[in-house]
Amino acid sequence: MNDRIRIKAHYQPSTNLLYDRSNKSLLDGFIPTNGSLDVMEFIIRPTLTTGKGTFRSHLLTGAYGKGKSYSVLVALSLLSRQCNGRFDNLAGKILKRRNYLGNWIQELQSMKPLLPVIVRGGYPSLSLALSAALVQALESEGFDGIYLLNNYQRAKEYLQLWEVEFPEAYTKIKEQFDGEGSFQSFYAKLCQYDEDALEEFVRIFPKVTNGSEFSRLSELHVIEDIKDITSKISSVGFRGLYIVYDEFSKYLEGLRGRMSE
After folding, report:
1. Paired residues of 114 in beta bridges
2. Which residue of 11, 27, 109, 229 has the fewest C-beta atoms within 10 A of its own C-beta?
């Protein structure tokens, strides 16, 4: 099979912001074209100032394969100072092509890093996607003791509490499912932020709590989470979060589809 099927030597896979951040070869192979430097300037300039009136929200658009994600990946590596020892090399490349941008990047070395938060699609709401991304970002940095609360987490906490403190209630919950395997599948989906699993928990909740309804958190609760996390990570060497929604257009397409239903 290997004699018949080969990958072309010039083939370049697409860049994944979440999984390629530690890819040393991507940082080594970065070529500072005018387009990529424009993107980096667009991203880095606002992070150097703290005054009012500075634009903090951006929308980056362009044709597929133009290197948007690649440029953002390199910029995030610089802002987070997670360059695998390649900060000086990257700054030197950029300094040769665009002097003032190279100086900005060197200035980043004297500043606290930003914690990148990569938001991805596949979640039923934007707030939940943000919440999941925050959890992943914190876990990737090894943070302990920073707690995020959402409806899925609260449902899991109820199940864990009932299992330990109220075994009768826990048994009653499990009786709502067709065997242990069905319950375990439900719990796994709940951990994966599956909307149907949460709705199933909400439906069952009154049967275990003598008619009480499950009180959902507001979708805006994630804003408080962001404020809280920003405050807490500042005490351990970060100056804030840098949130990137990868392929945001897909979220807008999905939102449009749900609104038209």
Report:
1. 240
2. 11
Cβ–Cβ under 8 Å, residues 127 and 222: yes
Res 52: pLDDT: 61
Side chain identity at 161, as an amino acid letter? L
* Predicted pLDDT at 247: 77
CA 61 – CA 78 distance, rounded (Å): 21
Distance CA 152, CA 147 (A): 13
pLDDT(154) > 50:
yes
Go through the chain and tell me how many residues it has: 261
Q: What mean pLDDT, rounded, does the chain reach?
A: 81
Which DSSP letter does residue 162 get? H
* DSSP secondary structure, 177-201, as one string: SSSHHHHHHHHHHHHTT-HHHHHHH
CB 148 within 8 A of CB 154: no
Number of neighbours of residue 212 by Cβ within 10 angstroms: 9
Nearest to 238 by CA among 118, 91, 116: 116
pLDDT for 145 beyond 70? no
Packing angle between helix 126-140 and helix 221-233, nearest 10 degrees? 20
The mean pLDDT value for 67-92 works out to: 82
Query: How far are the Cα atoms of 30, 196, 239, 240, 259 from residue 47, in angstroms, in the given order?
Result: 22, 39, 10, 10, 35
> In the chain, which ranges are continuous DSSP H helix?
24-28, 34-44, 68-79, 87-97, 99-108, 126-140, 151-165, 167-174, 180-191, 195-208, 221-233, 248-260
